[in-house]
């Protein structure tokens, strides 16, 4: 539990540092047994193999999120996880985009736009 708490905190800190609101905190953790996951140890061009602690992070963003915002978030995630003890070699991040009108955070209301402001 403590390990997931540390990962959660690092990922959330990265999100906030990239300008997402402090209360925009929705995370899901799925732990798989070694037999249930196959990951190429060196793909695509890693210099050393991934460890058994590899993380696959799926970040769902609003459609149209710019490449620079994604790079900023990616950099922040890797830096915060490294500070929390995760080898950057073990961090994989996949961005998926969804139209805000196709989602709801509750109350039966469509999701509102997020005011993203990078911290300087």
Strand order of the largest sheet: 1-2
Structural class: alpha+beta
The end-to-end span amounts to 32 Å
Percentage of residues assigned to helices: 25-40%
Number of contiguous helices: 2
CATH evolutionary superfamily:
Macrophage Migration Inhibitory Factor
Mean pLDDT over the full residue set: 92
Based on DSSP secondary structure assignment, what is the total number of beta strands?
Answer: 4
Unreliable stretches (pLDDT < 50, length at least 5) are none
Radius of gyration over all CA atoms, rounded: 15 Å
Number of domains: 1
Major pleated sheet: 2 strands, parallel
Question: Helix-strand pattern, N to C?
Answer: HEHEEE
The amount of beta strand, in percent, is 15-25%
Mass-distribution shape = globular
CATH class label: Alpha Beta
CATH-assigned fold name: Macrophage Migration Inhibitory Factor
Named CATH architecture: 2-Layer Sandwich
Structure report:
The protein is α+β, with helices and mostly antiparallel strands. The chain has one domain (2-110): Macrophage Migration Inhibitory Factor (2-Layer Sandwich). 28% of the residues lie in helices and 18% in strands. The protein is built from two helices and four strands; from the N terminus they run αβαβββ. The protein has helices spanning 2-17, 67-83, and strands at residues 55-62, 91-98, 104-106, 109-110. Strand 3 (104-106) and strand 4 form a beta hairpin. Helix 1 runs antiparallel to helix 2. The protein is globular. It starts with a helix and ends in a 10-residue tail after the last strand. The relative contact order is 0.22.
């Amino acid at each position: 539990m403590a390990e997931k708490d540390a990962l959660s905190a690092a990922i959330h800190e990265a999100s906030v540092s990239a300008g997402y609101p402090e209360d925009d905190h929705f995370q899901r953790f799925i732990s798989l047994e070694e037999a249930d996951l196959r990951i190429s140890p060196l793909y695509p061009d890693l210099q050393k193999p991934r460890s058994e602690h590899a993380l696959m992070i799926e970040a769902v963003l609003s459609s149209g999120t710019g490449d620079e915002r994604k790079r900023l978030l990616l950099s922040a995630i890797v830096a915060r996880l490294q500070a929390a003890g995760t080898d950057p070699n073990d961090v994989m991040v996949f961005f998926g985009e969804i139209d805000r009108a196709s989602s709801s955070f509750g109350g039966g209301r469509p999701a509102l736009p997020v005011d993203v402001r990078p911290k300087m």
